[in-house]
């Protein structure tokens, strides 16, 4: 009915020469008003009204120009909503493509090079194992070091991906779910408390999640903690994430001097990137508390 992209207002659609009958189980219609939903010159949809409720006994009042004007306003709103939805989907597709390209470059530039070096070193160790066992042992130590570096770089590349759960469930639910999994997977007790935090801008939620993941990784893999507690709450207008463990702790200044960051640089960068701050409190034998404060929420 709207192939010519213009409004159609009919007293009885059944009398129009273009009428071809109703599909099975379709209700009977008479009065008809239809308008195209357009994005510029492109028709992206249509709005139809039929069988206007009329107080006259003969029921023949039909749709008026006022009805058409009102439906036109609705069609304009529908066009805006559909156009925005299409633009969002295109933007999402571009973001996914860019993220895949970035990850491919990182994997090629970092991880693949490490794996290539690892393969050559393993071949050297195999060639030396019979005639020079001592050198072969040294090469195998190098294999282990390269494998660890490759694993760290692969993990770093994957961590940069924004998890779908964050978009679908929000920060609190995503953290709670991940911590429940960690609690089941590790001997340490891992707990989570979240209260009073509303939805935050996407960048802030991602930064808070990544800092929590990095802090949890350190606590569970390096500290020997028996209990790790994660809290997410409010401090005035700001949102505060705190990850506390009862593990062995460390001296942050010594870690920096030794060139071992335990992800501290990455966590500080993520916090400052959204206008927040990161505080690390730790000492040998006294556990560790990592706190990120993000504005708003």
TrEMBL record:
Its main location: cytoplasm. Keywords: 4Fe-4S, Cytoplasm, Iron, Iron-sulfur, Kinase, Metal-binding, Transferase, Two-component regulatory system. Its cofactor is [4Fe-4S] cluster. GO terms for molecular function: kinase activity. SUPFAM superfamilies: ATPase domain of HSP90 chaperone/DNA topoisomerase II/histidine kinase, GAF domain-like. It comes from the Bacteria. Coiled coil: none annotated. It catalyses: ATP + protein L-histidine = ADP + protein N-phospho-L-histidine. Gene3D superfamilies: 1.20.5.1930, 3.30.450.40, Histidine kinase-like ATPase, C-terminal domain. It is found in: Cytoplasm. Its EC number is 2.7.13.3. The keyword Lyase does not apply. Residues 102-297 form the Histidine kinase domain. Member of the two-component regulatory system NreB/NreC involved in the control of dissimilatory nitrate/nitrite reduction in response to oxygen. NreB functions as a direct oxygen sensor histidine kinase which is autophosphorylated, in the absence of oxygen, probably at the conserved histidine residue, and transfers its phosphate group probably to a conserved aspartate residue of NreC. NreB/NreC activates the expression of the nitrate (narGHJI) and nitrite (nir) reductase operons, as well as the putative nitrate transporter gene narT. This is Oxygen sensor histidine kinase NreB.
């Amino acid at each position: 009915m709207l192939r010519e992209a213009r409004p159609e207002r009919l007293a009885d659609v059944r009398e129009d020469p273009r009428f071809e009958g109703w599909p099975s189980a379709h209700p009977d219609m008479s009065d008809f008003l239809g308008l195209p939903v357009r994005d510029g010159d492109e028709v992206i949809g249509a709005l139809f009204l039929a069988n206007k409720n009329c107080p006259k006994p003969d029921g023949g009042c039909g749709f008026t120009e006022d009805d058409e004007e009102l439906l036109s306003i609705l069609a304009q709103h529908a066009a805006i909503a559909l156009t925005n939805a299409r633009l969002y989907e295109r933007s999402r597709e571009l973001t996914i493509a860019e993220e895949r390209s970035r990850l491919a470059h990182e994997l090629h530039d970092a991880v693949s090079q490490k794996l290539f070096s690892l393969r050559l070193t393993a071949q050297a160790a195999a060639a030396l194992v019979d005639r020079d066992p001592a050198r072969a042992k040294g090469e195998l130590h190098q294999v282990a070091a390269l494998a660890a570096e490759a694993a760290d770089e692969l993990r770093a590349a994957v961590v940069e991906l924004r998890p779908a759960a964050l978009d679908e469930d929000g920060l609190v639910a995503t953290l709670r779910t991940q911590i429940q999994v960690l609690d089941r997977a590790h001997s340490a007790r891992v707990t989570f408390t979240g209260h009073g935090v509303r939805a935050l801008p996407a960048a802030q939620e991602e930064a808070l999640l990544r800092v929590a993941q990095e802090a949890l990784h350190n606590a569970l893999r390096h500290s020997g903690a028996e209990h790790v507690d994660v809290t997410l709450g409010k401090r005035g207008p700001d949102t505060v994430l705190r990850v506390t463990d009862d593990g062995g702790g460390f001296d942050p200044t010594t870690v920096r001097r030794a060139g071992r960051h335990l992800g501290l640089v990455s966590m500080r960068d993520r916090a400052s990137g959204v206008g927040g701050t990161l505080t690390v409190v730790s000492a040998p034998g006294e556990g560790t508390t990592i706190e990120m404060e993000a504005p708003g929420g």
